[in-house]
């Protein structure tokens, strides 16, 4: 195991200055495999917050529906989706280096080509790198719930965030969130219902069934072991 803050690891999470963050960057302990993955595969999969606007056609060498996921954690469910839907291109954004290492390691070994990754604050990436009306699907699965009321302001789902996401979706595009925390599900529903350019696929005020394209995630399984429920929310951009 290595401490990635020890100085001999040149890959850093990218973000801009802001007063409230939706995450804490933990001094990441990485396995040797995760660490080596950066040397082996970051060149193939990594994108930089400071690399300017993403041009999907140039990045992927083709024109295909584009899916963006924020906070993929250890990345197994995102990798499964990229493998299951080779006709689409996937962008993952995560601040946690061990998760990024694990994802690019497994993607590289599996020869996955329709995936790229930012190791950065997703809100900064959305603002600086993702053009308007670029995305066919947006995914946010089990975002940090910030249980305590005094921390609710750190929840990533806020009206301004939803407006930002909506602006990045094509008309007809899909917005998909899931959480295992009922109070956060209610908050998501309230914020999403208030956005006039989104239409709830399950009908106003309703949660959706988990769609077949979303595998169970690591965090979801952890919640299930603790007896949590799961709430999926699916909206169409209008
Ligand atoms: C509770 S975990 C869930 C991970 C995964 N989606 C799952 O279901 O297993 C939430 C993840 O979101 C990431 N995250 C939180 N805020 C973020 C941000 N602004 N940009 C990128 N990643 C973020 C955290 O680092 C964490 O890995």
Automatic annotation (TrEMBL):
Pfam families linked to this entry: Methyltransf_4
Binding residue positions for substrate: 148, 180, 217-220
Keyword flag Hydrolase: no
Involved pathway(s): tRNA modification; N(7)-methylguanine-tRNA biosynthesis
InterPro entries: SAM-dependent_MTases_sf, tRNA_(Gua-N-7)_MeTrfase_Trmb, tRNA_methyltr_TrmB_bact
GO CC, alphabetical: tRNA methyltransferase complex
Alphabetical list of NCBIfam families matching this protein: tRNA (guanosine(46)-N7)-methyltransferase TrmB
Family from the record: Belongs to the class I-like SAM-binding methyltransferase superfamily. TrmB family.
Summary of the function given for this chain in its UniProt record: Catalyzes the formation of N(7)-methylguanine at position 46 (m7G46) in tRNA.
Protein name as it appears in the record: tRNA (guanine-N(7)-)-methyltransferase
Species annotation: Microbulbifer thermotolerans
Designated gene of the protein: trmB
């Amino acid at each position: 195991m290595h401490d990635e803050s020890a100085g001999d690891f040149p890959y850093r999470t990218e973000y801009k200055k802001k007063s409230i963050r939706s995450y804490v960057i933990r001094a990441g302990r990485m396995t040797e495999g995760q660490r080596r993955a950066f040397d082996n595969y970051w060149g193939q999969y990594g994108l930089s917050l400071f690399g300017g606007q993403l041009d999907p056609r140039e990045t992927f060498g083709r024109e295909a529906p584009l899916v963006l996921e924020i906070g993929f954690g250890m990345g197994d469910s995102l990798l499964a989706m990229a493998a299951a839907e080779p006709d689409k291109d996937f962008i993952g954004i995560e601040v946690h280096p061990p998760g990024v290492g694990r994802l690019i390691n497994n993607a590289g070994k599996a020869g996955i080509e329709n995936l790229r990754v930012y190791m950065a604050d997703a809100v900064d990436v959305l603002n600086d790198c993702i053009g308007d009306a670029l995305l066919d699907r947006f995914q946010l699965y089990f975002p940090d719930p910030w249980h305590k009321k005094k921390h609710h302001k750190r929840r990533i789902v806020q009206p301004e965030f939803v407006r930002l996401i909506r602006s990045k979706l094509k008309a007809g595009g899909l917005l998909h969130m899931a959480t295992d925390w009922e109070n956060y599900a209610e908050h998501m529903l309230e914020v999403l219902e208030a956005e006039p350019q989104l239409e709830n696929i399950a009908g106003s005020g309703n949660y959706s069934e988990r769609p077949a394209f979303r595998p169970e995630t690591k965090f979801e399984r952890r919640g299930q072991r603790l007896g949590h429920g799961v709430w999926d929310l699916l909206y169409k951009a209008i």
